[in-house]
Amino acid sequence: MAEKEEKQGNKQAKKNAGREIRNAEEHDERVIQIDRVTRVVKGGRRLRFRATVVVGDRKGKVGVGVAKGTAVVLAITKAIAKAKKNMVDVNLYEATIPHEVNSVYCGAKVFLKPARPGTGVIAGGAVRAVVEAAGVKDILSKMLGSTNKINNVYATFEALKSLQEREVPKKEEKKPKKVVKSDKSTDDKPAKKVAKTKTAAKKSVKSKTVKK
User: Fold this and answer.
1) How far apart are CA 62 and CA 16, in angstroms?
2) What confidence score (pLDDT) does residue 179 get?
3) Three-class SS state of 31
4) Which of 5, 70, 146, 164 has most Cβ atoms within 10 angstroms of its Cβ?
């Protein structure tokens, strides 16, 4: 039975190989972990493989998939298909995230913080794979709980899902200045002062000419 399942799995993997090559350019597919899983049955132990995969388009979409199969290739193809079904839009701000976020999944705790341009991706293996697949280029992160890769992947995925859009402040419109109309009484005063100065200047000129 196990041999037949392996042959069927290899046939399906060959069929899906062409599709994977076509979609490889569109999506960033990363295999995070492959585990060997045993299942105890009446006849003995049945060996299977479990694959954890992250898929993203590096433009704000990311998905996580975990699947099992009799062969490694079969498990990976199943996980990729699941990840593509579960892809989610992530709210990004330029090349980083809009705000700080904490996420808990089982025993894993992940803290993500936005960073300035040029900082790069400062993150561990599991967190780095999810963040880079989503298209984040500058970020600070910390894994505070369990070191289990699957739990940390899902914690990061939940953190990115919970991000909210950052409101861009609108530019304040310049209000037109109010022009205050001056009264006639105030306008007459400077005119009278100018006339007095002119008459005083004429008298001084006349006095000078008389002395000569």
Assistant:
1) 21
2) 61
3) strand
4) 70
Closest CA to 129 of 114, 149, 109: 149
Helix ranges (H only) for the chain are 2-24, 72-85, 125-134, 149-161, 184-211
pTM for the complete prediction? 0.67
Which is it for the CA torsion 124, 61, 34, 15, positive or negative?
negative
Q: Which tokens sit at 100?
A: 């700080």
Between helices 72-85 and 2-24, what is the axis angle to 10°?
Answer: 50
Number of other residues whose CB lies within 10 A of the CB of residue 185:
7
How far apart are alpha carbons 180 and 100 in whole angstroms? 50
> Judging by beta carbons within 10 Å of its beta carbon (0-12, 13-18, 19+), is residue 15 exposed, middle or buried?
exposed
Number of neighbouring beta carbons within 10 Å of residue 196: 9
Tokens describing residue 90? 């992530």
Instruction: Report the distance separating Cα 129 and Cα 150, nearest Å.
Output: 12
Q: In this structure, how many other beta carbons lie within 10 angstroms of the beta carbon of residue 8? A: 13
What would the pLDDT profile of 20-69 be if each residue is shown by its tens digit? Answer: 434 555 788 999 999 999 989 888 999 999 999 999 998 899 999 999 99
Beta bridge pairs of residue 101:
112
